[in-house]
UniProtKB/TrEMBL annotation:
Domain (C-type lectin): residue spans on this chain: 33-157
Protein name per Swiss-Prot or TrEMBL: C-type lectin
InterPro entries: C-type_lectin-like (IPR001304), C-type_lectin-like/link_sf (IPR016186), C-type_lectin_CS (IPR018378), CTDL_fold (IPR016187), FN3_dom (IPR003961), FN3_sf (IPR036116), Ig-like_fold (IPR013783)
Protein species of origin: Strongylocentrotus purpuratus
UniProt cross-references to Gene3D superfamilies, sorted A to Z: Immunoglobulins (2.60.40.10), Mannose-Binding Protein A, subunit A (3.10.100.10)
Transcription regulation as UniProt keyword: no
Length: 374
């Protein structure tokens, strides 16, 4: 029995030495829980900042241990302990304000994973937290505070999903959102319905939005969403699978500025008028000189009678202005008008995309002659 124990110890030391010399953690040592994977590194010993830098090199951070489930899950990988005491750096510290521990993203630590009597800032300067692996059951699987310059083992955490959330500049009243998600787990492929988006004041109160198109961009599943009636204070959340809670993976976006749609500064000019038609003219938008964001791709012409009061669209024409052109006179003929009727006529400029129509111009009023006058 004595020989067997010595042999086992010798083999363990040799294996540990080989892994330490390699200095690289294999992908198989990442362990999944919900939408995150964790690396419990019992080989490497670094100070707190070096440990965080190593995690960042993996595309991760020191672990956020903010629930009983996560704490028990990570403790399972350091049980039984390999020696009497070993502490693993996790991602919270009170460097800014003594006694006020925060996670690496700046949010306060609310979950209590501390061992009894901890944190105690013993001797001063104990600003960084670690998770105990110990044969002492009073502290095993619980936190302690320690000096950040002490070399300790570490636990890294990263989400299994990589998000790319893009909100290009859009026209007023509409928002185009592109949410692309790549999954870290080998062999797992996301379908179009897996990549979701919701909008609202908070994550829990947000409403889901159906994607309008989908594509594969390399290894990313990229869904496009078109949003209407966005209100002030709304936030956009992109996620995979079910609506996440605060502990699960999602990407949060802020809104981009909208385009300033061009408004004609003056109304159209009336030209030839008959009992059933009116020709109107106006000047096109001038790039770099006129206000508003171009390009203007077309114009909508509206008409209104004093009796109907409602504006109706009489037609549309393309701008016809090419690259390098400055300004040209636009012309449109309104037809099928009633004789002896007063009409208001207005024009709006349109840029490409939903919501690209600007406000209607000031109006011009014309009266078609009666047939006997004509």
């Amino acid at each position: 029995m004595k020989f067997s124990s010595e042999k086992t110890l010798f083999v363990t030391i040799i294996i540990a030495a080989i892994v330490s010399l390699q200095g690289v953690t294999s992908q198989s040592e990442w362990h999944r829980l919900d939408d995150a994977v964790y690396l419990v590194d019992s080989i490497t010993r670094l100070d707190y900042d070096q440990a965080q830098a190593l995690c960042q090199g993996y595309g991760a951070n020191l672990a956020r241990v903010d629930s009983d489930e996560i704490q028990a899950f990570l403790t399972s990988f350091i049980t039984p302990p390999l020696r009497d005491t070993r502490c693993f750096w996790i991602g919270c510290n009170d460097r800014e304000v003594e006694g006020q521990f925060r996670w690496l993203d700046g949010t306060p630590v609310i979950y209590d994973g501390w061992a009894q009597g901890q944190p105690d800032n013993g001797g001063g300067g104990q600003d960084c937290a670690c998770l105990w692996s110990s044969r002492n059951n009073d502290i095993h699987g619980q936190w302690d505070d320690d000096g950040c310059t002490v070399d300790r083992n570490l636990i890294c955490q990263k989400g299994i999903y990589n998000f790319r959330l893009t909100i290009p500049r859009t026209n007023p009243g509409f928002i185009n959102v592109y949410c692309a998600v790549d999954v870290e787990i080998e062999g797992e492929t996301l379908s179009p319905d897996d990549v979701k988006l919701s909008i609202g004041q908070t994550l829990s109160s947000s409403r889901p939005i159906s994607h309008s198109s989908t594509s594969l961009d390399g290894e990313f599943r990229n869904n496009s969403f078109l949003l209407y009636n966005v209100t002030e204070g709304d936030q956009i959340f992109c996620y995979a699978g079910e609506l996440p809670d605060k502990n699960r993976s999602f990407s949060l976006a802020t809104f981009s500025a909208v385009f300033d749609v061009y408004e004609l500064p003056s109304g159209p000019t009336a030209g030839e008028i008959s009992s059933s038609s009116v020709t109107v003219f106006w000047s096109s938008w001038i790039p770099c000189l006129d206000p508003g964001d171009g390009p203007v791709v077309g114009y909508l012409i509206y008409q209104q009678t004093m009796e109907e009061k409602q504006w109706t669209m009489a037609g549309r024409i393309d701008s016809g202005v090419g690259v390098g052109d400055l300004q040209r006179i636009m012309e449109f003929v309104l037809t099928e008008l009633e004789p002896g009727t007063e009409y208001n006529i207005s024009v709006s400029a349109v840029r490409e995309g939903p919501g690209g129509e600007g406000l209607r111009s000031p109006l011009v009023t014309v009266t078609t002659p009666n047939l006997r006058e004509w």
